[in-house]
Structure formats: structure tokens, C-alpha cells
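[Q] Does anyone have a clean C-alpha cell version of this?
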Amino acid sequence: MDVQSIKQRFKIIGNDPKLNRAIEIAVQVAETDLTVLINGESGTGKDVFPQIIHQNSSRKHKNYFAINCGAIPEGTIDSELFGHEKGSFTGAYETRKGYFEVADGGTIFLDEVGELPLATQARLLRVLENGEFIKVGSSKIQKTDVRIVAATNLNIPMAIEKGKFREDLYYRLNTVPIYMPSLRERKDDIRLLFRKFSADFAEKYHMPAIQLTQEALVMMENYRWDGNVRQLKNITEQISIIENERVVTPEILKNYLPNNNVTVLPTLYKGKHEDEPISERDILYKVLFDMKNDILELRKTVKELSEQRVAMQHLTDTQNITPINATVISSPLEEEDAFVYVQDTDNEIRNQDEEQTLSIEEKEKELICKALERHKGKRKEAAKELGISERTLYRKINEYKINL
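[A] Here you go.
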């Protein structure tokens, strides 16, 4: 089956060479049992490719399951994937089959695979290596024949460096990599996608389709589109419903593309009767939210440097030698005074880091509370706005003891 036939069958819009190459790889690998890892930003349409692979494989008449790993709480994900025995944990009132048992002979799509806990990653690695798994609360080894297709928008090599993802699992999943290009990498497809979405919404809402002026199209092509195709679709729907004018000019479009020059996720325009859009202050909190881990790493590094200085000074005092590559301290400070000064500086930096971390945690909690309030306690929508997984949000709610 050629690329154009695949596009028609799975309703894929675009002619970008990178998109076409991704489709070609999916079709070529479909007849094998090789594991596939789809990499690309959120909103690019990664979920279509596992369906292409499954429907063009010998497994197409068997079960196909798409599982969002980031939406399942950490405490239940092993049970969801591998099943559990009766009485294995509180609430396990009966034996339950997991996806890997039910999907035997078929295909499982693991979306947001980078969100899996390390313990679950070890279980998944065993399935990939020899097709074996054990239910939660059981000691019996079971076999399964499942094709695994995974997807992530994370930088997995960086997650490996931070100890959040197993390197051996990454190489097992990444047997055949498929890269889904972002919308800003396929600017020529923006016009086609907008035309398709506007026609769909015109039919859905029984109204004339909206059109772009040339200037408005240029504005769209120069926009960053951090939300990719999903964001373009949402904005097209908003304009179709809210605007009376059917020809979209830059003056109209700019109301739906705020913060056009920033690199953080832009806030979508909301109607006057809806909740207020996210403020610039909230966006700043989101940036601080992402910086939190970096600050913790910095504090760890400062602590290690301080310990190294203490060890070096101890060596100098006890053996009366100057360490190799050490700088000899000269007047006006004596060695002992200089060392005390270094220690004081380390303490000051550490205290500043701790104060800043506490401040960011307060901002983080405030941002989460506001997102939950905006979405009336709906965790899925709040997590989407915050740019984190639902499971991460669930953990943060417990960590900060947020009452819903």
C-alpha cells in the first residue's frame, strides 16, 4: 500500500517529506514483529502510527489497545498492564486480567511510555525480552505474544541520564524509531490542515467555512505552534464559532495567537463568557515549575563541591602538603580564614537555594490550585493545561495536600 492510500485511509493531511517518510517506515515495519518507538512533540498525531502498523500487520484481526501510561496512577499501573490476583492489595476483590494477557496475539500501543515508573519499566523489559509477565500478587509466570508500539514526547536520553528511564528498556523499545515532525517543521502543511479543519467545522456547525487572507496565512506559518496540529485544530474551531466574519485577517487571528514571539505554550483565546485566559504570571509560574528540578540539582552540586573542599583542606592540614592543582591562598586572608570564608559562602548559597526552592514550591502549589479551580476539579484538563501527566498531577496533589 502506497503513502497516499495510507493518508486517505487514516485521514492524514500533509505532504511534508518527513511526514511521508514516517508513514513509509510504519508500512515497511508493519509486517514484522519489531518494536517501534514513535518520538515527537505532543499534538503531532503520534497515535495514528500504531494503528497504521496494526492494520497492515498479520495481527490486524486480533485485539488492539491504546494505553496512556501518563493517565494511570502509579499505584495501579502494574495491575492495569499485567493483571492481579484476588486479595493482592486493598480493593482487589477478584482476579483480573491485564492488557498484556487480553491482547495476546495483538498489538499494544503504550503512549507516554516515558511516564512509566521504574518498577513497571522492569516488568515491561521482561515482556520485551522473553514474552513473560507475572500478575501482581502472583508467583506464576505467564506467556504473551504481543506487538509493542510505544510513543513519547520526552527526551529519553536525558531521562536516562537523570535515572528516570532504563537504558536497556530504551534500546529494546527503540528497535525501529519513527520521528513525527512538529507543525513548525512542516509549514507548507498548515494551509492544508486549516482548510480541512475549517471545512469539517463548517459541516459540523452548519455554517460557511472560514478562510485565511494571505497575510493571516503568513502569520500562521510564522507562529511557533507548541501545541502542534491539535492546537491548530482547536484555534480553527474557536474562530469558526466565535467570529461572524468568514474571512480571517491578521487583526482577527492575533486575538487567538497571543504571545506570538514567546517559546512557552501560548494561551488559547477564550470567549467573554468563559473563564479568563491564563495570565502572564501563570506562565511565569509554569516556567518556575519546570526550573524546580534544575535548582535541586544545583543544590546537590554545591553540596558535593563543599564536601570536596572539606576533604582537600583536611588532607592539607594532616599531611602538611599542597594538593595538586590547588590554588595557594595568599594575603590578605590567612588559610584558615579563607577556608571559613569558603564554608560561609557555601552555606549562603545553600540557604539561598533552599529559600528559592521553597518559594517555587509555593508558586507550584498555587499554579496547580488555580488550574484545578479553572477546570472545576477535573484533573485531566488541569494536567493538560499545566503540561504534565495526570499521574504527576495526582502525585503533586497528594504531596501538597491539596483539597479538591
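[Q] Thanks! Anything notable?
[A] The radius of gyration is 26 Å.
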